[in-house]
């Protein structure tokens, strides 16, 4: 596996790489200490996963936003500590997932494996269907919007809004289960690939982002509805 890590904290980089190499002994890692070198590495080489960690002069969420200018593949934000405000910032900036110190190896590995599966899924243009899911074509249209899962974008007329890999995977999952409430735990297992008990706030933050793409009024959602005590439900044509 080929990994890039953006951070200028050598101790932080060593800790993360050591955790990853427990499972992938032949892991290829290149550490970039600043945005220009990171951008060059992403353009010139094939990368499976990008980790973004602490970097002097900018927050992790700012670094994630800069990386997203060059690359649309899997991005994991690596935080110094688990703070709700930091988690929301990195997800809103475009991270597909986040991890916080101290790294819990089983969760770290399961999340990376989940990201790799989704990356391969889109590259091969084949959805990993669940037994209860309705197959979804590469494009899905409703009302005045069209979702292109192959090109990773939502279109409203001439306007095109790019989706990250995680946004597209989560949106496709909701479309697959149209009209049915989807529990947060099921989303974690089927989309994130995480089976351990973990924080579900990342899902809520992603839903906020998805509503910006598919709702006329994100503050009063009609298509991506909250189901209290359960999770969410996608409705293409609400009455």
Task: Name the descriptors.
239 residues; Rossmann fold; Arc Repressor Mutant, subunit A
Description:
With 239 residues, this protein is α/β, with parallel strands linked by helices. It folds into two domains: 2-123, Response regulator (Rossmann fold), CATH 3.40.50; 139-234, Arc Repressor Mutant, subunit A (Orthogonal Bundle), CATH 1.10.10. Helix content is 40%, strand content 21%. Strand 3 (49-52), helix 3 and strand 4 form a beta-alpha-beta unit. The N and C termini lie far apart (48 Å). Mean pLDDT is 82; it is low at 124-135.
Total domains, how many?
2
Binned strand content: 15-25%
Quickly give the structural class: alpha/beta
What is the helical fraction, as a range of percent?
40-55%
Query: What sort of overall outline do the alpha carbons produce when their principal axes are compared?
Result: globular
What's the overall average pLDDT, rounded?
82
Number of strands: 12
At a glance:
It is built from eight helices and twelve strands.
Topology:
Blueprint: E1 2-6, H1 10-23, E2 28-32, H2 35-44, E3 49-52, H3 60-67, E4 75-79, H4 84-93, E5 97-100, H5 105-123, E6 139-142, E7 145-148, E8 153-156, E9 159-162, H6 165-176, E10 182-183, H7 184-192, H8 201-214, E11 224-227, E12 231-234
Helix pairs in contact: 3-4, 4-8
């Amino acid at each position: 596996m080929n990994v890039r890590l953006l951070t200028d904290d050598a101790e932080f980089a060593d800790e993360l790489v050591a955790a990853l190499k427990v499972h992938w002994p032949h892991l290829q890692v290149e550490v970039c200490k600043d945005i220009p070198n990171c951008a060059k590495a992403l353009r010139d080489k094939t990368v499976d996963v990008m980790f973004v960690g602490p970097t002097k002069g900018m927050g992790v969420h700012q670094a994630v936003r800069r990386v997203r200018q060059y690359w649309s593949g899997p991005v994991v934000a690596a935080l110094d500590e688990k703070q709700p405000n930091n988690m929301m910032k990195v997800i809103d900036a475009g991270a597909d997932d986040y991890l916080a110190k101290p790294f819990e190896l089983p969760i770290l590995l399961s999340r990376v494996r989940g990201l790799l599966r989704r990356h391969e899924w889109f590259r091969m243009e084949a959805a990993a269907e669940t037994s209860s899911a309705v197959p979804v074509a590469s494009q899905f249209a409703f009302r005045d919007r069209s979702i292109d899962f192959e090109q990773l974008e939502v279109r409203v007329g001439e306007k095109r809004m790019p989706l990250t890999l995680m946004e597209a995977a989560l949106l496709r999952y909701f479309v697959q289960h149209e009209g049915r409430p989807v529990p947060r735990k099921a989303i974690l297992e089927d989309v994130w690939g995480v089976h351990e008990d973990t924080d579900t706030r990342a899902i809520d933050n992603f839903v906020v982002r998805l509503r910006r793409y598919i709702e006329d009024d994100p503050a009063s959602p009609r298509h991506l509805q909250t189901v209290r005590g359960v999770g969410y439900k996608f409705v293409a044509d609400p009455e």
